[in-house]
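Bench log, entry 3. Co-assembly request; chain sequences pasted below exactly as received.
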Amino acid sequence: MDASRAVTVLSVAVVLVTLVVTGPLVGGSDADRTTTELGDGTATVERVQLTDSPSFSSGRFGTGVVYLRIPDAAVEFTSTSGRSRLVYRVAVPALGFDRVGTATVDSGTIRRQVTMSDRAFAPDTLDRDRYRVNVTVRVQSFTVDRTVFRRNLTVGVDDD
Amino acid sequence: MTEPAAGVEEAPTRNWSLFGDSLGVAVFLGALVIAGSTWQVGFFITDTYAVANGLVNVAEGHLTVDRIEYSLTLGSQPGLHVVDGYLYARNYGQAFLALPLYYALEALTGVARLELVLAAGWSLLVVAACRQVGVVLDRRRLFQTGGSLLAVGLFGASVASATPVEAGLTGLVALQALSLLAVAVTALATYRLCARFHGTRVGAVAGVGTVLATPLWFWATVPKRHTLVAAAVAVLLYWFAASRQSGPRVTLPLVGAVRKAVVLRSLAYALAGLVAWVHAFEGVVILGTFAVADLATASTTSRRALVAVVVGVSVGLAPFVATNLLVTGSPVEPPRLTESYHPNDEVDIGPGGAVQHDVPAEEAAGQSVESGGGGQSSGSADSEDGQAGGPAGDGTDSSGDGRSAVGALTERVRSSSAFGYVTRIVADASEAPSRLYHTYVRSGRIEDGVRYSVNDEETVELTLAESVPLVGALVGGLFGALAFGLWASWRSRRGRSRLRSDGGTGGRWPAGSPVETVRRLSGRIRGGDPASQTDGFALVAFGAYATLYYPLLPLQSQLTVRYVLPVVPALVYLVARRRVVRRSLAVTARPLVAGYVLALAAGVVALTVVFPALDPAVGEAMQLHALANLAVCGVLLGTVATTRASLVDDTRITAGALGVAGAATTLLVVRMQLVYFEYGTYALPVVRHLADGLAVSA
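Structure output for the full assembly:
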């Protein structure tokens, strides 16, 4: 057997052994697989900022729609404990639009940014010049649910 | 690259190998590794739920869907049909074909975590692919050692960063694995087809190109029917090509000595018939086009050959007919054509996914209210209209319970399939230019026919040229040949008229009767060389698909015109057949590879620089790709046309342009999978992290 074959056999063996060792037969319990779940944590917020202000603008590159451009929410913490999450909610009631973005916050997190993609609207669905946009950010876990940021903005549709 | 074995035919007597040669194995493994690298375990299009449920129920030993294993919300799901109070899935061909993979995965998840099974499988494929590339390049030791170490590293990183995948998703994963295999088979068949006519270099470029330069990569792990049918088309093209010459005699058990060509034709008919099991209309179209092309060009139409054809068709259609008989009672009415299931029928789906029959009306109503709160759809392109499944797939039917099979069938045929189909084509004739333009050339916002609301109004539906700019080479070749032909005939006419100034340029063809013309034409087709005959089949197959889906397209959730995806391998083959393309690869594939790599690098740089500044939404990003790809398509078209018309002599420019076209699609499909459409858990998060590192997914 030449060296390359030996390396291959060894590699394949490593892969297969790891596969079995981490599997359900060899004590690989499901307990360590659920760490992404929400916990009992909490977080004290220092500052919440939108990276930009929400706006309506025409879609580019032939998309032929109007986009509600949604900024990210940037949150800075003074202290965090356990696992909680940020709930970033943007709603335009007149358009029936209501969307939530979340990001988990572990203890020790200093800064967290929640992103939300822009939302397209068919041009003929926008029949007003301006819309009310409600933005909230909450800290949420099994033990807390606190609104830490709330803005009711009026956003104009730039008609072009 | 190996030595080009241009024109070298495989050893005719004994070669029944599936892969042909070591390069074929490399293409196959490479396709699996590439297309598998971006695998997301998740449901991208909602009717996949129904097929996956069908698979799980078939594995339990019955065609009826008695247990809903997978669902987005409680209640109905697209692709679920009801016959006599029992639920059925829309597509059993796919479910049955995925069955072996399902059992294998079930067994493996008994000893290992599903997400790591996928990572391990892929890592082992990396070893095999690297080794095989080493064999081809005559550097086996180096590549095998490097590949092994790379695979261990990739697997280690996968273990460290793996996101858990529910073990219960084996049904979905089996369907995805089947689709992935189909893409690898497509690449292999395209390789063998092109290598057969033009040597292994052209073959390898075409085979790898089917993965890198077409949206097959994107659909590889989206378990719709498209990749399966694409594989069938690619294999049919290869078998068609291989059976145009009668070939040697082979001895088969029970049958005795027969020509190899006859065996291949029989197999091809069986395969075409099998497509009907997956999708009845596409099966009929493929069987029909194959039969026309085959019988028009067959090297032999002996009685024996015809018997082989009939046997092939019967065997291929048998599972389709059997399934139909068991489900609908009619051999020609597939489950897809039966009534779509809506809750509040006499069947209901309980909270645990158990299908309950004859639920009292109030209870059923209460159930559906409870289940009515379907969450806000988060992904794009996740729903498909019932109509989208096929020209006659519209499942709303008013015939109710007391319907005779024949009556219902007649009504259905009249209302939706052949008759309705022809009426629609005729009635929509005035729309043809706009339809074709928005299906094949430029998308943008398509006002007619596309319901953008199902995909959050995002303008994500691209055309064929925008998603496969490679097709520019086909059109360019055509234009170039036309221009060259006109110019040549003008020159020769001038030369001739100078010679015979007496005006004796009498008609070269005696005016024959139409019958005579047809006979001559059929003789010319039959006498043509196998490559031209295969070109004919490829063109007819594309034309048939374009016609089949013409009344439907453009359509929401087509993304890369997935409805014509099955004939994309035929287009790749036709591109590889262009004389200009072959000439550009005659000596070396280096300019092509250089064009591909440089364009890919340039694309990545452009993405990192331009995208953060533009901050495009999904629809805008897709349309930006579309415009860029269209420009690339135009450049390729121009390059190939001018080279073909002998205005440009340097074929390296064509080769480079082909590479750039391939890179444009690669960039699009990779971004689609890693950035624009995140619909599941990445089976290989390590690939995603690498992409992040390279800023591909910035």
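The first strand of chain A starts at residue 42 and ends at 50. The first helix of chain A runs from residue 3 to 21.
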